[in-house]
Every structure is written in structure tokens, then in C-alpha cells.
Amino acid sequence: MEKLRQMIFCRRSVRKYLDRSVTEEDKARILEHFRSTKSLWPDIRVEARIVASDEVRFYFPWRSPYLLAVYSEEKAGDLEEVGFRLQQTDLFIQSLGLGSCWLGLGKLRKDAPQVEGLRFVMLLAFGHPDGVPLRTAISQFNRRGLEDISDRRDERLEPARLAPSSTNSQPWFFVHGEDVIHVYQTQAGLLRHRMLGEMNRIDVGIALAHLYVAYPETFRTVQTDAPEVKGYRYVCSFKI
Ligand SMILES: Cc1cc2nc3c(=O)[nH]c(=O)nc-3n(C[C@H](O)[C@H](O)[C@H](O)COP(=O)(O)O)c2cc1C
């Protein structure tokens, strides 16, 4: 877990890959890691498969040799759950010396594997990076400040601040309760919402994954009343 925690502070999205195979052993480790990730909502069934690039329609000029395809039961909280679990594996993949990048604008082709009873949700590209080094300084992260993502500056939220998000939208906002923290999703404008609404739910799960990896002993969600915050959608409350 310490290795994953370190990756929070140096990971990056890789969009340039070598034409080089990932070993069967590493592929098996990645799938096993995903199966063992912690759940945000354990009653939601989520599964992953590794697919090849010709089983995917990319809407970007770049390609990756492999992708992790994630499928979920359709239930309240499903997208946050996918974000929470897949981000743990994003950190794991990068800890193996491989590169990865979330691919919201990618679709499985018809002949790609399906999982019965689950709907396809998201892809994470991965492979050997072609000269894309890990970050070596926090200043290399293009992110909003701690004071912009929370009702008060709280250094403990730094791992969430650094989390990746669709189009780097960073749609999370944290409000402190007495001994809990409530997390909200910023509501984008109408047009942006149509494009980003679902992805932003995944993004909030990703930020929570960074908090879990940073504070594995203490992180837990709690059921509690949370204040309404105008312009934000309440997601859940947690302790760290
Ligand atoms: C849910 C999600 C979907 C994303 N979709 C894409 C995508 O379709 N194409 C792409 O090039 N990057 C995609 N990204 C990567 C983000 O652009 C990237 O994480 C963000 O700009 C921050 O950069 P960093 O990951 O290097 O820290 C996605 C990220 C997330 C979290």
C-alpha cells in the first residue's frame, strides 16, 4: 500500500506507448489487483477484463496496446464505485513501471468481451510508456489549490487534490462536519453537464480512492446528515 501511496505524488497520464508486450504475469497481477481493490459500496458488483486495442474504438489519435475494461451492475453509486476501484489499479499499474490513462472517450467494439448482467462503464489504457517519465515534483501537477476544493484548507486532502479527472475538471468539493468530511460533486453548466456529468461521478470516486490509499487504516464512509450546498450534488461522507 505504501508503494501505491507514493504513486499518488508522481503518477501521470500516459498517451504514448511502445509496441512492446506486457508479460502474462503482469497482466494477471493487474486483474488480480483489480479483484482485490477496496469497494466504496460493496453491494455493487464490478468486474474487469483486459482487452486489446483492436477491440476498442479510440476517439483520439493515440492508441495503447492494452486496456482494462470495467463493467458494473447498474445501481445508485455505480460510477463512483468504478472510479474508486479502478483508480486503485491505475496506481498499481504505474507502480509496476507501466503507463496508464483513463479513456472516457473510448468504446468497446461489438466483438469485445461482455460480462453477463453488467454494463460496460469505462476503459483504462495501459502498456509500456514511450518516454513519459513519472512526475518528480508536485508543481508538475496542474491542479486547483487546496483552498479551492474545500470549505477550509485541510492538508489531509492533498491526495484528493492531485487525483486525475476527466478533462482535468476536478469536480470535487469537500465540506467539514464535526468529525466527518462530506464530499460533493460540482454541477457543471448544462452543455458541459451533458458531456461530463457521468464522468464527473467517476472522478469523485477517483478522488476518494486517493484518500483511501493515503489513509488505509482510517478511511471509511459514514452514513450521516449532510448540509445542502447550492450548486453541488452531495455524494457521501467519510472519515480519514
Ligand atoms: C474519467 C476520466 C476520463 C478520461 N478520459 C480521457 C480520454 O478520453 N482521453 C484522454 O486523453 N485522457 C482522458 N483522461 C485523462 C485526463 O485528461 C487526465 O487525468 C487529466 O488531464 C489530469 O492529468 P494527469 O492524469 O496526467 O494527472 C480521463 C481521465 C478521467 C479521470
Characterise the protein shown here.
The chain folds into two domains: 126 residues, NADH Oxidase (3-Layer(aba) Sandwich); 98 residues, NADH Oxidase (3-Layer(aba) Sandwich). It starts with a helix and ends with a strand. With 240 residues, the chain is an alpha+beta fold. Helix content is 28%, strand content 23%. The strands form three sheets. It has a four-stranded antiparallel sheet, with helices on one face. Strands 7-8-10-9 form a four-stranded antiparallel sheet, with helices on one face. A two-stranded antiparallel sheet has the order 2-5. The structure holds flavin mononucleotide.
| Spatial separation of the terminal alpha carbons | 16 Å
CATH topological fold name of the largest domain: NADH Oxidase
What is the helical fraction, as a range of percent? 25-40%
Rg estimate, integer Å: 17 Å
Present as ligands are:
flavin mononucleotide
Q: How many domains make up the coordinates?
A: 2
Q: Which CATH class of the largest domain?
A: Alpha Beta
What average pLDDT do the residues reach? 95
Side by side, the strands of the main sheet go 1-3-6-4
Outline type: globular
> Number of helix segments?
5
Structural class: alpha+beta
Largest sheet: 4 strands, antiparallel
CATH-wise, what's the superfamily of the largest domain? Answer: NADH Oxidase
Strand proportion, as a percent range, falls in 15-25%
